[in-house]
């Protein structure tokens, strides 16, 4: 049995890395944050946005977003949320779920968020490390008798830390033309890898999940068996944080994916099989409102409990693990942009027919979340929102 091949995440665009400080309105890279992941500037340097600043931005976005949809007729919808002072300040949903039904989107409409999924999975992995189920620096081969790659001893150097920081040496996604391989000594340098996340997901499923050997198939040339990953992530994080509409399996009423011609993309109804392959790396389905609940736990966490991380784990997540450039590093699940006024954490996501971007300032306790359901969503909507005058006017105060 062969499963449909419409689920593989697209080649990842490094959203903020491509745009750099200019796109965010945040120039001049900083050295790394200190060991605690805290900004190296004093509080007197912070210019806090006023209520009128926020109200002005909201008014502008309520005009700008529908206008951008009109100017980008291949993208059906955009849904956005703003976080300020670690609270959901505003949310807006514009457009339709798909061009065929023309059903309007709402704040509760669920989108696929592509690689933004990695931030949520990384959080759960960190909690498993707190509980002693995993160790960040223990080779993953110690947890499973299956060897992902046979004949390469460097596999024993791949750890959870190296997966979450994209330093495994594995390529982004394998194919028949590009078989899975370790391309450099793990830990040596940075190279974005969805395969690393898929590998770690399989280890987690073996340790604390359920694998169904009676439901197996080939998904994009890889043999996988269905797991309870959707139920596991709901139980371990999504439901406790109040993200009750979020998950990894298709449900009616979602925003449908559209290609760069504005045509609905068929065959993208995620199943336990496709989720077993791509869930951790790119399978999350959520709303900006619900993702904001998770983002707030990162920037202004509640006390640690059965589901929430302790302060040490959170610091480790957003601490630079490897430098990519003078202005960019990678943490555990997060890209980190270094600016004059402190670090901005971010992640972009793109699956076929969906584009997404999230970014936040730990220092400001502020951020934004943008989801679209079109292949042209980044160029036509997201990039123009982030680089447009309304956001550029406030971004230095919001994220700087």
CATH topology: Beta-lactamase
Unreliable residue runs: 12-23, 27-44
Shape: globular
Chain oligomer state: single chain
CATH superfamily: DD-peptidase/beta-lactamase superfamily
Order of helices and strands: HHEEEHHHEEHHEHHEEEEEEHH
Into how many domains do the coordinates divide? 1
Share of β-strand residues: 15-25%
Could you report the average pLDDT, rounded to the nearest whole number?
Answer: 90
Cross-sheet strand order for the largest sheet: 2-1-12-11-10-9-8-7
Helix content: 25-40%
Q: What structural class do helix, strand and pairing data support?
A: alpha+beta
What is the number of beta strands?
12
Beginning-to-end CA distance, first to last residue: 51 Å
Q: Per CATH, which architecture?
A: 3-Layer(aba) Sandwich
CATH class: Alpha Beta
List keywords for this structure.
globular; Beta-lactamase; alpha+beta; 400 residues; 8-stranded antiparallel β-sheet
């Amino acid at each position: 049995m062969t499963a449909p091949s419409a689920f593989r995440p697209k080649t990842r665009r490094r959203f903020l890395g491509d745009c750099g400080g200019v796109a965010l309105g945040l120039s001049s890279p900083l050295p790394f944050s200190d060991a605690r992941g805290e900004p190296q500037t004093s509080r007197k340097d912070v210019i806090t946005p006023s209520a009128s600043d926020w109200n002005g931005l909201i008014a502008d976005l309520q005009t700008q977003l529908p206008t951008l949809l009109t100017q980008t007729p291949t993208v059906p919808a955009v849904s956005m949320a703003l976080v300020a002072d670690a609270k959901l300040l505003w949310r807006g949903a514009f457009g339709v779920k798909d061009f065929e039904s023309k059903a309007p989107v709402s704040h509760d409409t669920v989108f696929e968020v592509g690689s933004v999924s990695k931030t949520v999975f990384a959080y759960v992995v960190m909690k498993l490390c707190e509980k002693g189920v995993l160790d960040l620096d223990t080779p993953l081969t110690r947890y499973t008798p299956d060897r992902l790659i046979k004949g390469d001893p460097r596999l024993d150097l791949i750890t959870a830390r190296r997966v979450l920081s994209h330093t495994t040496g594995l390529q982004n996604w394998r194919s028949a033309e590009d078989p899975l391989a370790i391309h450099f000594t793990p830990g040596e340098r940075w190279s974005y890898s969805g395969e690393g996340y898929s590998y770690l997901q399989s280890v987690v499923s073996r340790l604390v999940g359920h694998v169904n050997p009676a439901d197996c198939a080939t998904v994009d040339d890889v043999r996988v068996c269905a797991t309870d990953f959707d139920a596991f992530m709901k139980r371990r994080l999504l439901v406790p944080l109040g993200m009750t509409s979020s998950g990894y399996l298709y449900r009616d009423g979602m925003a449908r994916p559209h290609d760069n011609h504005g045509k609905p993309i068929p065959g993208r109804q995620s199943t336990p099989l496709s989720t077993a392959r791509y869930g951790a790396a790119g399978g999350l389905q959520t709303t900006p409102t619900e993702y904001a609940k998770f983002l707030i736990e990162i920037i202004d966490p509640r006390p640690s409990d059965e589901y929430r991380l302790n302060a040490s784990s959170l610091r480790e997540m957003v601490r630079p693990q490897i430098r990519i450039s003078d202005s960019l590093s990678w943490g555990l699940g997060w890209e980190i942009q270094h600016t004059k006024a402190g670090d901005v954490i971010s992640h972009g996501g793109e699956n076929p027919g969906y584009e997404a971007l999230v970014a936040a300032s730990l220092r400001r306790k502020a951020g934004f979340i943008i989801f679209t359901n079109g292949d042209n969503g980044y160029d036509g909507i997201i990039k123009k929102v982030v680089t447009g005058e309304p956001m550029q006017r406030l971004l230095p105060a919001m994220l700087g």
